[in-house]
Every structure is written in C-alpha cells, then in structure tokens.
Amino acid sequence: MAPGAAPRLLGSLCIALLLGRHGPAAARSASHGLAGSLVRTFTPFYFLVEPMDVLSVRGAAVIMNCSAYCETAPKIEWKKDGTFLNLVSDDRRQLLPDGSLLINNVVHSKHNKPDEGYYQCVATVESLGTIVSRTAKLTVAGLPRFTSQPEPSSVSKGNSAVLNCEVNVDLAPFVRWEQDRQPVFLDDRVFKLPSGALIISNATDGDGGLYRCIIESGGTPKYSDEAELKILPDPEVAQSPMFVRQPSSLTRVTGQSAVFPCVAIGFPAPYIRWTRNEEELITDSSERFLLLAGGSLEIRDVMEEDAGTYNCIADSGNETIEAQAELTVQVPPEFLKRPANIYAHESMDIVFECEVTGKPTPTVKWVKNGDMVIPSDYFKIVKEHNLQVLGLVKSDEGFYQCIAENDVGNAQAGAQLIILDLAPATTGPLPSAPRDVVATLVSTRFIRLTWRTPVSDPQGDNLTYSIFYTKEGINRERVENTSRPGETQVTIQNLMPETVYVFRVVAQNKHGPGESSVPLKVATQPEVQLPGPAPNIRAYASSPTSVTVTWETPLSGNGEIQNYKLYYMEKGQDTEQDVDVAGLSYTINGLKKYTEYSFRVVAYNKHGPGVSTQDVVVRTLSDVPSAPPQNLTLEVRNSKSIMLHWQPPPAETQSGQITGYKIRYRKVSRKSDVTESIGGTQLFQLIEGLERGTEYSFRVAALTVNGTGPATDWVSAETFESDLDETRVPEVPSSLHVRPLVTSIVVSWTPPENQNIVVRGYAIGYGVGSPHAQTIKVDYKQRYYTIENLDPSSHYVITLKAFNNVGEGIPLYESAVTRPHSVPDPSPMMPPVGVQASILSHDTIRITWADNSLPKNQKITDARYYTVRWKTNIPANTKYKTANATTLSYLVTGLKPNTLYEFSVMVTKGRRSSTWSMTAHGTTFELVPTSPPKDVTVVSKEGKPRTIIINWQPPSEANGKITGYIIYYSTDVNAEIHDWVIEPVVGNRLTHQIQELTLDTPYYFKIQARNSKGMGPMSEAVQFRTPKAESSDKMPNDQASGSAGKGSRPVDIGPDYKPPLGGSNSPHGSPTSPLDSNMLLVIIVSVGVITIVIVVIVAVFCTRRTTSHQKKKRAACKSVNGSHKYKGNSKDVKPPDLWIHHERLELKPIDKSPDPNPIMTDTPIPRNSQDITPVDNSMDSNIHQRRNSYRGHESEDSMSTLAGRRGMRPKMMMPFDSQPPQPVISAHPIHSLDNPHHHFHSGSLASPTRSYLHHQVSPWPMGTSMSHSDRANSTESVRNTPSTDTMPASSAQACADHPDPESTTGSYLANAQEEDSAQNLPTAHVRPSHPLKSFAVPAVPPAGASYDPALPSTPLLTQQAPNHPVHSVKTASIGTLGRTRPPMPVVVPSAPDVQETTRMLEDSESNYEPDELTKEMAHLEGLMKDLNAITTA
Q1: Region 97-103: what's the mean pLDDT?
Q2: Global confidence as pTM
Q3: What are residue 939's DSSP bridge partners?
Q4: Which of 512, 462, 475 lies closest to 346 in space, CA to CA?
Q5: Could you give the dihedral angle defined by the CA atoms of residues 471, 473, 476 and 479, in that order, rounded to the nearest 10 degrees?
Q6: Does residue 1071 register a pLDDT over 50?
Q7: What distance in Å separates the CA atoms of residue 253 and residue 306, rounded to the nearest whole number?
C-alpha cells in the first residue's frame, strides 16, 4: 500500500461512519479516537478559577478572581452587568496578569454605586472560540445604621439575657460588643447572633454593667447607645418559663450555617431541647447540630435534608412552653450531565445535552462563543435543557456553554463543536446524480422521497444516499441519510405545514459522494384544522353519585364543533370511560360515593378530535355509610361496665369521612328501653354504669356528616354478678377432658373452682409430644373446642390455661392418641330412584326423585342431603355442575335454551354417600335467537350482474331449530327498517339469490334468523355494489322472459341445464323431454271440463245461499275490518286432497310435506305435474315437467320466481296502521323467468300465498280480482301502476263498501289478456267479500297503460283515481313486477307466537261448515278420479 494511503482510507471510513450516524449526538467526544490527518482534535479550553460572590465595604479593595487555560494563551476580558469594561483608561479597575480583576477603593454612596453589580470573565482564543465564566455578585455594605439598639434590662442569676443590636444584614459581620467600654470576648456562655444581638446565658454577677455595640465597616466606627444590664438574686418563689427570644423562620443555601435563637427565663431556670419534624434532635454528639449559649441551635454546613420545622421546647420541670420556626434550604445549580464535545459534518443535526438540578429549579440558557443563543427553527431547546442544532454550517463551529441559574447561584459548563471537512475522494469513479427524485407522499409534517439509482451504477446495491433539504430561501441545509445500502426512499420528518422545501439527493460509493440531483421543490400540506382545548373546564359534585362538568367553546374551533367527548376515570384506576355530549355541560351519574374522579373534554369537528383539556379532579359528595361497622366484640370488664371493640365499615361503603360512631344498647329483658351514646372516631368504647348480672345488647352504627349508616346486628353480653378480682391470674381449670378422633381431638373443660377471679378466656396449647407447638385462645364462655387437622395415630400433649388481663394461670395437662386412619368406611347408601326432569322454561328444569331409604311417606327427618349434578354434551368436554338440596326436588336454573341436559342425583347422610342415580334427560324449551347470523357475504353471480348471491352462517346462539331467515335489503342504509325490501328464506338454507337488482347501485343487506319462538336480532349491514354493465349473455334470458309466452321463440334454458331429480314442480317451468301431443290434448281438455264444472258449482252454490247465511256474511265483513283472528285448519275437517275452502275459498292441495312447519310453510305446494291445471292450448308441453323448488336446493335459480317465492314465503304478522274499516291490499311481485303464464297457473291455482296481517289482514287468495279503486286506495304503491284500469270497483270491496255480497262479480281472463297483464299488473291479495271464493282475475289494462320495466321505480307514490274515496292504507310491498327490482318500502314482519298462530288456525276453521259442500265435494272427487285415470292411461 502506498505511503499515506492508510491514513486517508481510515479518515474516509470515519467520515462514512459519521454520515451514517445522523441524528442527535451523531458524533460525540467518543470520536476523539478518530485518527488521520483529516480529523482535528478537540482543544482544551476551560476556566481554572472563576469569580465568586464578594461582600465589600466602601473604600476597600476587591479582587474578582479569574484564570483560564488553553494551549494558546487566551485573551481575558470582563463584563459588568452584561457590558464589557474598558480597563485601559480606568484608574481604579485593572486587569491582573492571571486575568483577575482588581478594584481599588470601592465607591459606594446612596446615589452612586458604580462598583456594585454582576461581574463575568470572558476568555477568547483567536480562530478557536470564546468562553464565559459564571456570574459573580459584588455587594457593597451600606452606610452603618442601627435598626434597634440595646435597652436597659435585668436578669436573675443563672438565667439568660438578650441585648438587641439589629443592623442592616450586610453589616452584621462587622458588629462587635463592649462591656463598660471593654471588648466582650465570646465563648460558650456569651454568644453573638448573626443579626448582631448578644446572648448571655447562666448570668453571674460579673455580667452586670454598661453594654454597647459597635459597627466597624472600614470607616469611622459607629457606636450604639449604652444600656445597663442588672443581675438580680434568685427569686424566692417559682416562676413560669417564658421566652425572651424565639426562633424565626430562616432560608439558607447549602453549605451555609443557620442559627435559631431560643432564650427562655424562669425559676428554676428552664432546660432547652429541640425537635425537628416532631423528632427529638440529638445535639450532644453531633458535629453539625450545636446547642449554643442560652439554648440557641446552630446548624453548620446546611444540607438539603435539614429543611423542616424546628421546635424549641423550654422545660422547667413543672411546665413546658414551645416555639417553632421553619428552615428552608436552597440549592445552587449543579450539573448532573455536562455537554460533551462533538464532531460533525455540515448539514447534520446535533444535540448538546445538559442536565442540571437545584432548588429553586434552575433556568438554562445557552451561549455560543460568548454570545447568547436565541432559539429559532434551527437552534432549539429540547427536553427542557438540551440544545439542538439543525442543518449545521461551517460557522456553527466553536464553543457552546450551558449556563444554569437560580435565585442562589449560577454555573456554566461547555463543550466544543468541530465541523469536519469531507475526506477527498480516493481514486476511483464516483456515482452520477440519482435520477427521477419525486415526492411520493406529501403530508403536513413529513414528505417521502423516492428516486432511481444513478446512471453510473444501475444496480446501486452498494450505494448509500444523503438527502439534503432546506426551507426555500434559507441557505442552511439539513441532511438525512438512508438507513441501509441500496435503499432508494426516505421519509423526512418534523417539517412545518404549508411550507416549501428544496430537496436534493447525493449518492455515495466507497470512493466518496457523487453528483447532486437536480433540486426538487415540494410544499407540505396545510395543517388539518382541529379544535383547540375547551377552556374553563370545571367539575363539581352534584350528589354523592353524580358530577356535573361544564366547559366553554374552544377559542380555536377551526370550524363548527360537532360534538364533545367527555372522558372520566376513577382516581387510582387505569380504565377511562367516555360519553358523547352535544352541549357545554354534562352530568355523569352512577359514580361511587365520596370518590375522586378525573375529567377531561375533547372537542370534535369535521376533521376529528381536537386537543384534550387538562384533567380536573373532583370528589363526589359524601353520604351516610352504606354498610355497618365490622367485627363488633364485647368484653365484660366488671359488674358495671362492658368494653366494645369494632372495625370501621369496608372502605368502599363508608361513603365519606367517618366522623364518629353511634352506640345503642338496651337490656335484653326490656327491648324498648334503648340508650344512645355517640363517640368519636376511635374503634372502642367503654359503656359504664350498667346493672350487675344483667344481659345487655349492643349495636354500633357509623356516622358521617350526612347522617347515620346502618347498624350492626345486636350483640349481647352479661355483666358480672359481683366485681371479680383481676389483680392476679386465674386459678387452674377444675377439669380437662379429651376425646380423640382420626384427625381431630375434642377438648372440653370446666372453669376454675374459684369463681371470684376474672377469667377473660382460655388458652389451649397442643403438639406432638409437646403442648407448645400451637396455641389457640377461646372466649371465657366456651367450654369445649375441636382441634382440627391432626395426624392419625399420633400422640398429642394438650394444655389448658385460664387467662385474664394480668396473665395466664396454671396449666392443666392431658394427652391423647388420635385414632388410626384404617377405619372401615360405612356401607354406601342406596341411590335415589325415579329421577325425572320436568321442563319449565327455556332455562329452567325441575328435577324430582324418590328415596327408597326413606319411609313410605317420603318425609326427611334426619340430616341427609341430596346432590344434583347436570351437564350437556355440547360441547363434548363440558364439566358437571352440582348443587345440594334437602328436599326431594331441585329447580335447575341458568340453562341454555333448546339444549339437552342429563341429570343424576346422589344422597349423603353423615359420612355415608350413595352412588349416582340413573340419569334423566330433558331438553329446555326454545327461545328466540339471541345473536344474528354470522359471516354474511354478498357476491355477484357470474354471468348475471343483476343477480347476487348472499351467503351466511347460522347464529352462534340459535336457541332452537332455525326455521328460516329474512333478508332485508335497501339502497339507503339509514332508512327505517320498514322501508327495506324483505326476502324470506325457508328452512335452514344458508344461501339465497336475489335477482333483478339495479346495476351500479350500492345495496345494504341485513339478515334475521327465525325459529319457532320468533325473530332474532339483525346482523350488521353489509354493503355490496352491483356491477356497472350487464354481461353479453344476459340478453337472451331477458328476451325469453318476455316473449316465450307468445311463441316467438323457445325458452332459452341454457346448454348446461340438468333436470332436477324427482317429480317436484320447478317454478321456472324448465322443460325436460317433450310429451306426446295426444296426452297433452287429453290433459288440456280434462282441465277445461273440470274448470267449467267448478264454475257451475260455485255459481249454483252462490245462488242457493239462504238468508240464514247473512249473519255469516256480516261476520266475514267484520273479520275484514280487523275484528276477527283467522286460524288454520281444524282437525275435525278432513276433506279430500283437492277441495274448496269454505271461507278462504282457494283451490289448494293439502300439503303432505314430510316435515311440516306450521309457522313457515302453511302455504301448500304442488306435489307433481298433475296438480297444475292448464288453461289453454298455448302452454308449452314443458309445463308438465316443472319442478318444485320448495326445498330450496334442487335448482340453482329457484329463489325469485313466483312459485319458488310463494312456496317459501312465510306467514308474517305485519303491523299496519290501525284503520279497521278500510280494505288492505298486499301487492306481491310476479316473476317468471321462462314463461309469462307460469305465475297464473302455479300462483293462482297451485300455491296461492297467504299473508297474515295482524288483526286486519286475513289470508287472501292469489286469484281474487283487484279493482282499480283498491289500488287507488293504497298510498304506498310499488310502481306507477296504470290509473286507467277498467275493472269494476265493486269486485274487491264488497265487505268494505257494499253490504250486498251478490254484487261481487268475477270474470276469467282470456289467454291474450293474460299474456299482456302478466307483465304489467301486480296480483293483489284482497279479502273476499263472500263466503264463497271469488276466482276473478285482473282485467286487461288499456294499451296506453302498458308497464315499462325499464322506467325508474318510484316508491311511496300516491296513486288516486277519480270518483272514489281515498283510503290511506299501508301496503306490504314485497317485490315488484317485471324484471327490474329497486328497493321498496316494506313493513317489518314480526314472527307470530306459536300459541297465537294455533289459536288463529282453530278459530278460522270453526266458522266453516263443510257438511254443506258434501254433494259438491262428491262430484269433485269423481271428476278427480276420472282425471287421474286419464292421465295414468
């Protein structure tokens, strides 16, 4: 290696290290070890001597010492009061060779004080820097004057005398005393106080004379007046002690001395002693605490821990007097951490650390090269005392000093900053400029920069980067370095909001830094305007359990304040609670009594939470205690007194400061005569003046300022018959008996024979081989005790002693051997039999049993008890729960709904127990689900953007068999729930499809589970936005839906269609294999014949109705108006499979589902293709192959078409506005994906829907005609239904508007009419006006009223027709016509109660008279048999 290469390489490595360690204190004095020619060393430059505070007198000479060290001799200058002194032309002040300042002939007068002030020494070394010393104060004593002078006095021999001579404080050191014009010599007996006063203790005859004090402050001495001190003989009589000089409070600095004067006189002469903070102060052997003449206390070298309260106690033997004073100790500033020397490079950030302590707390300022550092954007005081310099420049180099100052002193400590030059690049290529520097993230306080590697090094794995940045217009750059090689991004923190910064990036390789990138200007974002703190927050307790908090609007709200959040927390807790508040005050209730709480308020605006207020602390008001005192015990003292002891109520129940206790007592024999005694806060009370040999009851209650709390229970004790002797210990107990068991010994005894000595109790000692192992004390009333937890087959020695307050008496000894453990267990008992579980509710089961070991009457006369245990097998690892009972039954509560439990019982009598009985099982009743369905997800169906698939999981707390779900959806998540569209789902299916949604629309979905007990809670709303455009394969399906009925094209069912298994009818009408045309012809002809026959029967039956049926008609009308509840099929009526219902009058097959559900599936579903009666020849042959989608899983698309939807629609109790006289129409959607005829056949004939409207709406047939006036009367309609309908108004309102049922007419819909209306009209469910069913269908609308499914929907649109009264009735709109289905308002269903549903079904059927239809039914059965024969042939 070439000479000099090693130092250069080392230097560059050191610099690279420095650049990699950016941030506070990047390069400390530890870098002193850096070697190489590039690194300069720190130069020692410091003060050897600094000036100290000086007290001088006028005309004296003063020296202010100062000496500084540096390799180059420093230049010394002086500042007075912050201004440099010009010493060249000053004849009184001159600079000494070592740098000290000499002031000759100090000048000081009342109006001219040129020398008094603060002096500071300044040392400078050219090209290195400047340092300043601490500041020293020069005080010049004032002109001599006396504030008090000696006065004539007298003192008895042996006492102490005080002669006052008070002068201004700065002259006190210059005071001396003379007696009879001779100097007074001070010693242990004669002492001068710092104030100048003279104390003479233990006076003698020689102390008498004339005294004066003299001030000698350099000039002419100043004398006080003379005063005579007379010495008196000892007084004949005792004199109370009194102070002639008391201590006064002092403030001293550590290291100084403090003197507390304390002089007392009296006869005999009092003795003086001292206490500090109520602790005796030992002065005999102490070096710092000295007792001076007369009893004064001197504290030398005062320390911080000497602060406190000092008491002077004068004790004359018969009497004591006290005087006290405070000592306050101040501490000048001291450095805990001094600034350290720092190496750095330009653009780096550094921190000089400085930690100080003192009392009072010091203030810190920084000086650079002798000049004060003024805080700015680049010079900041951080962490109270540290100096941070940002973006170093060369001129920042020099000496920095931390100067700490408080009331009693100041100190300085400094450090040097050296800014290194970058090492010259070693031979080798340097990187080019980084490319494409951009700000990828710009915030208010930070910016993230990214860039690409330089062209010279595309890989850039070994490159590090330095990012230089500055505010625009400022030439002081700061630098941030990447944290690892190859990193091409950095986040610059701690920027100012709304400020333009200039950034440039430099890449570095092993040879050095390369070119800089082009400067990039970036402006930070403006600060989000959050609210400031709410001013004037106040909290006050308004009751023992409530606090009212008030505040004002923040001064800087930065926009409208939306609300406030009030946080509060119990003192000592760590969990904070909060409440939202709209106004400027709030009262929080339910707090603990007499408890401290802290409160704070945060204001919110549209940007979010603002700045929190400071915590305010308040204590709730006190109240009477809520619990009695604890552990009340009585101790009989003698024949007339009883001592009470107790503990206070538990802390959380005291509800305030306990101010005392109320004691109530009475004779047990006279309970009405109660005596009250109120004591203080002590926890005992002696009740005296009682009667001999009388039993008294006592109770204690705690008091607060609010009143008396609850009292304890009465506790009784009996006074002695006579006052017993307690001057000696009790005698030995008269007897002691022991009875050993296996692990215990029963000890019994009798009291001592001498009953005249007080016995307070007995002490029992026991142990193996020795009685001293353990001791137990029992009450004096007790005569036996069981010693537990002993070892079997062990020899124990037992001792018994009586004791009283004098001590323990003579012991009595006994020994016993515990029994061996091998005692045979008693024979087990017989287990209980006949265990039965009776279910009482969803969470309660009663368990009963019999006990064969009891007599026949099963009465329990002994101490046996029974243990009941129970568990459930879900989950499998559930543990048994047990409970004890003393009767032959037990009520088990707290069980889970719809859960199978097993129960067993065992009996225990003494030490004998039975085995567990045979188990009994019981399943609790169901309860409504208590949790919503889980994991609700919504996805779009592939290829069908207007169809979504919603999936979910059952509720975790189903509480019964789930019988169905209801899906709610809406485009407005905030809409009332009765305005959401509902989709019922039958059974336990966990997926459902919803079709015909609007494209590019956000929908919100909620799901509710249902069991036999009702509806559970709704899930949280799930949002889903439908796709924007339909897929290309959507059009054929749409066309098929609209035109297949006209024969324009066959139904497009797709190439992947697979016919479902079985013979169920598909609501889609999906074709399978074609039938023979002859068979189809036969079926169509048969159906036509049957239809004609049914019409004839209905017509004949209507004309044969006699007047005896008029009451039934009126009853039907009354039912329509909400006065009757319909119920289901009666068990008494068993018509054939296809029958005409008498009152509901709908042609329906009886549902023979193997799993009937009376709540969910009251609507029958066609079982095979023969149940569907075709109307005309225009139906496709595929009508016979339709499959029933009632079970919900055979066909993927079986959810929203009419038959599938009607088959699954549950009975729902829908609450409507209570308007009984008005007819109600429930408009249901009719959807047919494949054939427009389908809804008529499978809907009208096969599976009409019945909806229950509570108290108003009865089940309606699908096929009833819907008049125009009915539609007009509905104020909530699904669509803009045409208002020019020509149907007669009477056809659906016979009960509501026309009393004559014969006016109800019906007409059949022709094929062509049906094809058009299938697309345009909703099928309305209208209550029939006549007991005989009307089969009328909607009439044909005029051509101008055609319905356009593409038009936007208008929910809640009022539709009115002329010439008809308008009735306002809410309609349950469940779906729409056509294929477009926007969200529509619905009434939220509430699940009917099981009992009510059953009753409705029974009442409904009780009005039917099936006997009147016997003939018609017989004809109908014959026709059905013929039809079956034809179809099977």
Answers
A1: 89
A2: 0.40
A3: 949
A4: 475
A5: 40
A6: no
A7: 11
Parallel/antiparallel/unpaired status of strands 342-345 and 409-420: parallel
**pLDDT bracket for residue 836 (50, 70, 90):** very high
In angstroms and rounded to an integer, the radius of gyration of the C-alpha atoms of the chain is 53
Structure tokens at 80: 């007075």
| Three-class SS state of 155 | strand
- Residues 6+ away with beta carbon under 8 Å from 65: 49, 50, 51, 52, 100
CA distance 1081 to 1079: 5
Distances from the Cα of 913 to the Cαs of 828, 864, 884, in angstroms?
5, 9, 13
In three-state secondary structure terms, 1389 is coil
Read off the tokens for 646.
């107790």
Cα distances (Å, whole numbers) of residue 1137 to 230, 843, 1173: 141, 42, 15
Report the relative pairing of strands 398-406 and 409-420 from DSSP bridges. antiparallel
DSSP bridge partners of 872: 901
Q: HSE, CB side, 13 Å, CA atoms: give it for residue 176.
A: 11
Task: Please tell me the distance from the alpha carbon of residue 1287 to that of residue 1364, in angstroms, as a whole number.
Answer: 13
Per residue in 1277-1314, pLDDT tens? Answer: 333 433 334 333 333 333 334 444 333 333 333 333 43
Q: Tell me the mean pLDDT in the region 693-707.
A: 90
CB distance 1242 to 1172 below 8 Å: yes
Rounded Cα distance between 633 and 674, Å, is 19
- How does DSSP classify residue 88? T
967: tokens are 């899906």
- CA 266 to chain CA centroid, Å, is 69
3-state secondary structure of 757: strand
pLDDT above 70 covers what percent of the chain?
Answer: 71
Q: What is the DSSP letter of 614?
A: P
Contacts of 514 (CB under 8 A, 6+ apart): 430, 431, 432, 433, 454, 456, 506, 507, 508
Cα–Cα distance for residue pair 272/939, rounded to 1 Å: 96
Structure confidence at residue 1003 (pLDDT) = 93
Neighbour order of strands in the sheet with 489-492: 435-442, 447-452, 489-492
CA-to-CA distance for 970 and 1382, rounded, in angstroms?
Answer: 8
β-bridge pairing 54-56 and 129-140: parallel
pLDDT for res 1028: 84
**Distance, CA of 747 to CA of 798 (rounded, Å):** 9
In the 8-state DSSP scheme, what is residue 59? T
Integer Cα distance of 978 and 1212 in angstroms: 13
How far the first Cα of the chain sits from its last, in Å, is: 114
C-alpha 558/C-alpha 710 separation (Å) is 54
Neighbours of 648 (CB within 10 A): 18
CB atoms under 10 Å from CB of 926, counted, come to: 20
The residue type of 893 is T
With b for 16 or more beta-carbon neighbours within 10 A and e for fewer, the 1014-1032 pattern comes to: bbbebbebbebebeeeeee
Distance CA 1037, CA 1054 (A): 9
Peptide bond into 360 cis (omega under 30): yes
Residues 6+ apart with CB under 8 A from 734: 749, 750, 751, 752, 753
Alpha helices for 1056-1076 (secondary structure H): none
List, for residues 319-367, the tens digit of each pLDDT value.
888 888 999 999 999 999 999 999 888 888 889 999 999 988 888 989 9
How far is the C-alpha of 802 from the C-alpha of 734, rounded, in Å? 10
Q: Which two tokens stand for residue 235?
A: 């007084």
The answer, yes or no, to whether the previous bond of 1352 is cis (omega within 30 of 0) is no
Q: 134 in helix, strand or coil?
A: strand
Kindly provide the residue ranges of all beta strands, DSSP E only, lying in 851-933, ordered along the sequence: 865-872, 881-885, 889-892, 900-909, 912-913, 920-923
875: amino acid identity, one letter: P
102 contacts 87 by C-beta, under 8 angstroms: no
